[in-house]
Amino acid sequence: MSSMQAAEEKARRMPRMPRRKLDHIPGDYGKPVIGDTFQFLRDFQGLMEEKAAKYGPVFKGSIMFQHGVTLVGPDANAFVLRDRDHIFSSRLAWNPLLDKLFTDGLMLRDFSNHKYHRRIMQQAFKKNALAGYMERMNPHIAEGIQQWPEGKEFSFFESIKSLLLNMGAGIFLGLEMGEEARKVNEAFVAEVDASLAVLRLPIPGTTWHRGMKGRRFLERFMKDLIPEKRNSSDQDFFTELCQAADEETDTQLTDQDVVNHMIFLLFAAHDTTTSTLSSIVYALAKNPEWQEALAQEAESLGKDELDYDDLQKLEKATWVFREALRMHPPLPTIPRRTIEETEWQGYKIPENTLVNVVPLHTHYMSEYWSNPYTFDPERFSSERAEDKGHHFQWIPFGGGHHKCLGINFAEIQSKTFLFHFLRQYRVSVKPGYEMQYQQVPLAVPKDGLPITIEKR
Ligand code: HEM
Fold first, then answer.
1. Ligand 1 atom closest to the CA of 409, numbered from 1
2. Is the peptide bond before 441 cis (omega within 30 degrees of 0)?
3. DSSP strand E in 28-121: where?
4. Ligand 1 proximity of 90 Cβ (cutoff 6 Å)
5. Is 185 within 8 Å of 165 (Cβ atoms)?
6. Contact in structure between 269 and 172 (CB atoms under 8 Å)
7. Mutate to test the pocket of ligand 1, among 173, 272, 444 (most ligand atoms within 8 A of CB)
C-alpha cells in the first residue's frame, strides 16, 4: 500500500471532531461556549490580526464551537497545502459543512482517491475545452448586460449573480435558457443557500429541507441526461466529464461520480466568481483611472468578442484581477484536519486537530506587500513583481494538492465580463461610498454593492 493510500485509509477511520488537548499552544478560546464566533462573523480579518500580534504565527482558538490551530504566513501556507507527508485531510475539515449537500465533491476527497479524480477532471479544464466555454460566454455576457438599467442605482451583486447563473446553465450543463434551466437554477440556489443553514434537520419549509430537495432534483435531472452526454459532441463541462477517461487506468467516472462532481463544480464556481467580480467592479468604480485604462486596453484589441488568445494581451486586466483577489480573497480561510501528529515552528500539533491557514491575513502582511491596504494593481507588473517574493504569499486559489481547478476559468470569465462591460459602460458609486464586506464564510458585499452605469 502506498503512503497516500495508507493516509486515505487512516482519514476514513478518524472519528468526527474530537476535542484535542492544545494546552501547550499559545492562544485563547475566547468567551465560554461561543468562543470567538461573534468576532469571527463580524470582523474575521481583525480577529486574525489581533491574535497573530498577541500570540505569534501559531495560535489556538475556538470558532463555531470548534477548537483549532491557526498557522499564519506563506511558509505555513506551503507546509499545510503542499502537505508533503500526507498529514492534512481536506475531506475531514470540509465534510462537517458540506458533505450532505456536496457529497464526494473533489475538495471532499483525499490523497490517492483525490489524485485519481483530479486527474480525470483536469481534462474538462484543458485549453481546448476552456476555449469552447469562452465562445459561449461572449454573446451571453454581451446580451445580459444590455438589460441592466442605465442612470439609476441597482445591485451589482444580484445582477451579476443572476447573469452568471443563467450562463452557468449553458456552460456547465449545456442547457438552453428556458423552463428547464430555470428549474435547475432554482434547485441549485436552494442547495447553495442550505450550505449556510445552522439548523440541519429535514423539517419541511426550512432552508435545509429545500436544499436537500434541490440536490435530489439535480441528481435525478443529471442522471437522466448522462447516457446522452456520454456520446454527445456538446461543449460543456457535463459532456467533458462524462467522456473524460483516466489515461493511466483507462477508466471513466461512474454516473454517480459525474453527478457528484458536477454539483460540486457548480457550487465551487458560483459564489467565488460573483464575489470576485463584485470586488473588481467596486475597485474600478472607486478608481476611475483604472477603469479607463482597462476600457482602453479592451478597445485596443479592435474587436467585439474576446478570444482565448487575446487573454494574455489584457495585461492590466490581469493585474486588477489579481489585486482584487489579494484584497478580498473569496475564501478568506482554508481548513484541514491532521490525521497524524505533526510539528510546526516547534509546536506539536496532535492527530485529528483542525488546522487553518488564512489567505486573507497573508495577503496583508507588510513583509510581503507594500501599503497592503491600498488598491495598487501595478504591484503585479513584471517590473515590481511584489507577488513573487514567496510562492505561497498570494493564495486566493489555495495551493498544493487541492489548488483550485477553476483558476483559468475564473480568469477567463472575469476578463470576458470586463471586456464587454467596460467597452459599453462607465460605472460609479455614490461619493464617499465604502463597500462593507461580509468576510466569512465567503467575501460578499453586505449591501449588494449599489452601482450606477452610464453608456460610454
Ligand atoms: C475567483 C474564483 C475562485 C476562487 C477564488 C476559488 C478558490 C478556491 C480555493 C481557495 C480552493 C481550494 C480549497 C481548499 O484547498 O480547501 C478551490 C478549490 C476548487 N475550486 Fe475554486 N475558486 C474559484 C473559482 C472556481 C471555478 C470557476 C471553478 C470551476 C469551474 C472552481 C473549481 C474548484 C474545484 C473543483 C476545487 C477543488 C480542487 C481540489 O480539491 O482538488 N473554482 N477553489
1. 27
2. yes
3. 58-63, 66-71, 88-89
4. yes
5. yes
6. yes
7. 272
Helix axes 255-286, 288-299, angle to 10 degrees: 120
118 touches ligand 1 (CB under 6 Å): yes
Q: Is the pTM above the cut of 0.85?
A: yes
**What spacing in Å lies between the alpha carbon of 268 and ligand 1's midpoint?**
6
User: How far, in Å, CA of 148 to CA of 60, rounded?
Assistant: 47
pLDDT score at 405: 97
* CA angle (109 as vertex; 107, 113 as ends), nearest 5: 135
Closest-lying ligand 1 atom to the alpha carbon of residue 93: 16
Task: Please tell me the distance from the alpha carbon of residue 171 to that of residue 187, in angstroms, as a whole number.
Answer: 17
Decide whether any atom of ligand 1 lies within 6 Å of the 241 Cβ.
no
Rg of the chain taking only CA atoms, in angstroms: 22
Ligand 1 neighbourhood includes 397 CB (under 6 angstroms): yes
Please give the distance, rounded to the nearest whole angstrom, from the Cα atom of residue 278 to the centre of ligand 1.
17
Cβ 194 under 6 angstroms from ligand 1: no
If one counts every other C-beta atom within 10 angstroms of the C-beta of residue 147, the result is 9
DSSP assignment of 22-36 = -TTSSB---BTTTBT
| Helices and strands counted in the chain (H then E) | 16, 12
What's the pLDDT at 204? 93
User: 68: which strand partners?
Assistant: 61, 354
> How far is 318 from 307, CA to CA, in rounded Å?
15
Give residue 196's pLDDT: 78
Asked if residue 170 lies in contact with residue 196, where contact means CB atoms within 8 angstroms, the answer is no
Question: DSSP letters of 393-415?
Answer: S--TT--GGG--TTHHHHHHHHH
106 CA: nearest ligand 1 atom: 40
Which parts of the chain register pLDDT below 70?
A: 1, 17-20
pLDDT value, residue 134: 95
Fold of 3-455: Cytochrome p450 (1.10.630)
Question: Which grid cell is 210?
Answer: 429545500
Q: How far apart are CA 107 and CA 90, in angstroms?
A: 7
